[in-house]
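Give me structure tokens for this 868-residue protein.
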Amino acid sequence: MRRLTVPLLTMVAILSGGTIASQAQTQPLLTRHVRQVTLNGQAPLVGHLPPTQSMRLVLVLPPRNQAELDDLLKELYDPQSASYRKFLTVEEFTARFGPSQEDYDAVIRFAEANGFAVIGTSPNRMNLDISGSVANVEAAFHLTMGIYQHPTENRTFFAPDREPTPPVQLWHVSGLDNYSTPRPGVVRRDASVGTEELNAPTGSGPDNSFLGSDMRAAYYGGSTLTGKGQSVGLFELRGTDLADLAAYYANVGQADLVTISDHVTLLSVDTQSTSCRFINGCDDTQQTVDLTQALGMAPDVSKLVMYIGTGGLTGQTVDDAGIFNAMATAKPLNAQLSNSWHWEPPDPTVDDPYFKEFAAQGQNFFQAAGDNGRWSPSSEAWPEDSPYVTLVGGTVLKTTRAGGAWSSETAWSDGGGGISPDLYPIPSWQVATAEGCVDCSKTYRNGPDISANAAPSYYVCADQKPCTANLYDGTGFSTPLWAALMALVNEESRSDGATSTLGFINPPLYTIGLGSNKGVFHDIIKGSNGFSATKGYDLATGWGSPNGSNLINALGGKPTPDFSIFASPASVSVPPGGTGTSTITTDITGGFNFSIDLSATGAPKGATTIFEPKSIAAPGLGTSLWTLTVPSTTAAGAYALTVIGTGGGLTRSTTFNLAVTAAPGFTISASPNLVSVLPGETGTSTITTAITGGFDSSVDLWATGQPKGVITTFNPKFISAPGSGTSTWTLAVPSTTPAGTYPLTVIGTGGGKNIKTTVTLAVGDTPNFAFSLSPTLIEVPRGGSGTSTLWTTTLGHFDSSINFTAKSRPKGVTVNFDPDPLKKPGSGKSTVTVKVGSAAALGAHTITITGTGGGITHTRTLGLKIVP
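Here you go.
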């Protein structure tokens, strides 16, 4: 972890605005050069570089007028500023912010006076390439070049033992160590490892692997934009063999789509060869992938320039200064730049001057987020966590078919992302987003910014060997395709009359992400890299992957094509077996011009929904009559339905409320439903009726099943319309009635309906008890519970407590009684609670309830229906 204090678009150190030509005393440099491992003993000294060994260095001068540059960058990316997107040319940048010619000449004189040969100058006067012996280096910079044992790798490296102190002010001296071994962002996976991310079944390449053209179909989906008039710059630490690129296109039948010699330029910025042959120990996998991904997304890009520098071969120093400065001074400039390499510089701020020059000149630099999952405080995440780059994470993509549209996407488990290990302060454009992100830091830079497919699902040709399918993965795939997509964005912007490129896109990306239009990105909400993908911005996928023309238009400032959908009325009430209608209307904005298919979810079981028409014809503005019919068996209640419109790669919906009313009718109940009477006496029960569904009729009460001689009367005999009310039912039992229990039926008749309830009459002169259950059937979902009330009555001076048990219950079902037991003399009620486990068997079951008291036992059956 390398702690920094960097505000948005402000350098780590405060750079001097004065000249350096007259300063003869030694000057401490503005960045670090000494590796910590050489100071703390983790890398022991094992020798020294030979004095006569030749070294190539890049002397980097600090830019001038730093505060003015910071202010300009804010204005260039502020839509309210008069300077918005009025980017500088290389010459304009050099005149205002580049080192002065006097300072540059002073550094040249210093180099030559100390025995160095000047082998390269730069138009912006930021870099001076020199070569000389180790002895020259040690004398000029007042240090010793040691050889150290690497603490984690089986090799040695060279590095200075102290900070350089030349007599001129420099920002950095590049090339003083070869401690860090750069890693490409494309990794070959073990073919024997089986994961859900292997062998994506939807690509158009061999073994269903993805091609660059598949990414164009999934993430752009159009044909108009091809990258014409745009150029893309690729950062490379090794050369390539264009025969591998030719083999790729020949094998997949696309050789006629790209003329390699017309599109690809190989440019070495130092001594690194543009050729890379595996037979010579050079691997060109990453370099070829950069080409196929970029050309797949932007097949007619005017130029695809590979800036090739040292660092990718054994023992080399990383010439990041040379490559970045070549990108910053190219003629013409590449508006979109891509880097899939990772390394660890001695100071994470060494390349900030180049990143700021990119932003000032309207160039956007895309950086791969890494391939080891979530970042930790000790992660080597550079240049990943720099606030000056657009960081690209990884996903796992599925398409509708080979060469088809986007279908679904999840976070890639190995995609880099998290909180800046270098502790870069959070940039201003990320502050509001971090407030709504649970895992995000509110203090430091968060990443990634965006994502695309990085799963092992690609077709790869490299190293002059047979091509492979579905074996390589990494954010080295997703990064160049985003850079090429940016070429489409700038192409579209130019065609709409823009006079400049869009430049650094992070500020508008985050503004768009927080905006009301949610169709700009494919929001990834599943999967994890150690951080879970969530709705909106997250540390696994950033804002998500590009959603074609929606993102292109949004970045270019054009209205994004969209549509809305609503229902009128938004709610209807129907009886069981009834039909309701609503008019579905779609409205379009931003030039939307697609047909819209209509569907609905959430309807009751058995219901039918019909849209007339089923599809709103392009451009998508119109109405459809929606008819909803529910079966006669549909239970009364409220149902939330969703009406869905799908078209132009977008899905929009509206909520519709359906109320199924109860059928006209009434219910009847008795309390108590167990009446205990001694011979020659009377008993009573209250009969209650309640109406449903608009029932409106009087209800006539009567009873059947009573023993001989028992007289029953209802007061009143009729419940007046609309049918809700109570009646006292009296049962007069003759003295001659035999002891026992008798099931009686109370019947209500009205409105053409006969509704019944059962009441038990208990007659006895010897001690006894009886009990009943209400209701006798309960319906309980898995994981839920239900209740029934148990009523007891005593006979013949019964005087004992009564205990209850449940038998024959299904597996996973428990039954409790409250209270249990019923205290003497035994009359009362107990609540029976039935709890159903989540794995209990569905369907109809019976539970036997046993009551025991005073030496007497009775049983009753409780019906149980378990539903999902």
